[in-house]
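Review form for a predicted model. The reviewer records the input and the model, then writes brief findings.
Reviewer: anonymous (R2)
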Amino acid sequence: MKRALQLAENGRGTVSPNPMVGCVIVADGEIIGEGWHRRYGQAHAEVEAVRDTVARGLGHRLEGATAYVSLEPCSHFGKTPPCADLLVSNRLGRVVIANVDPNPAVAGRGIARLEHAGIAVVKGVLEKEGDALNSRFFCGMTRKRPYVILKWAESRDGYLGFPGIRTKISDTLTDALVHKWRTQEDAILVGKNTVAADNPRLNVRHWTGINPVRIVLDHQLSTAHEQFNVFDRDQPTIFVNSLKGSENFPSRYQDSQGGFEPGYLKIDPSADELVEMLEKLHRIGIGSILVEGGAMVLNSFLQKGLWDEIRVIRGSIVLGRGVRAPRPEGILVREQTVGRDQISYFSSPK
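Model under review:
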């Protein structure tokens, strides 16, 4: 199961809003095939593992073998056929699972199908590790909102920068790490003030991977024009506003030839706008969001308790004045030194 979880991790940043899943097939104490869900809309882990077994010339050993799968095999037709049926048709003898799938379309039905076919099922092996692996997927299924990570860089004396002025705090090594984080999440969110002051591109130019969907909080659409990089159509952008809405929204997985047309998500500014925004983003398939600022946006998420992780980068520079950084909350999980910077990771106590 450790190997299955390790394989599943390879799908981070490419399979959302689906879960990351790995599968290892074992016969007579020997691994005969393994695979993972590589990309949204493509073959699931069990299919890849069976294909790998056959490619090794070991397909005849599938009957009676054991499959170790990090998540309950699906039992419904989605973008791919049911994986439970695949395991049944290949007459495996046992399936070991880390997590039961909370998706109502599965939720025990995959296990029931396997057991009905006479396949022994073992549940809950390395369940906590599986929970951590797919925390984004489970958040969407249980809370009906994206998984939210708050991230900011602050000076050694606790400032984000100077009002309306772009201020460089983290060093180049940390910049590369932040761009890696961006490849691992569905979307990156900033407010209009950050766009106006910094004119960020919000892409992954310092890392290799898929650009996130840019989400800009801008009630009056003051940044939705060619002056700003967020409107460049080089990657998907959604403007959250109170003026107009779209029927179709850009996906980070779609073909970018010809450019990405921006999407417009309309919310009611008189209501609880963050809650409404997260619910609507969940419905259009955004499974996780990296919130990068500015101060007003970050504090709004903190005050509402609408976050799951916090990552604070503390640089080596001292500013002496400026916009105060938010105070991190939650449980300090770990700290990391990258170049001259110190990074603290917090998790929500919920």
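Findings: Residues 172-184 form the longest helix (13 residues).
Further findings: The chain is about 25% helix and 25% strand.
Recommendation: see findings above.
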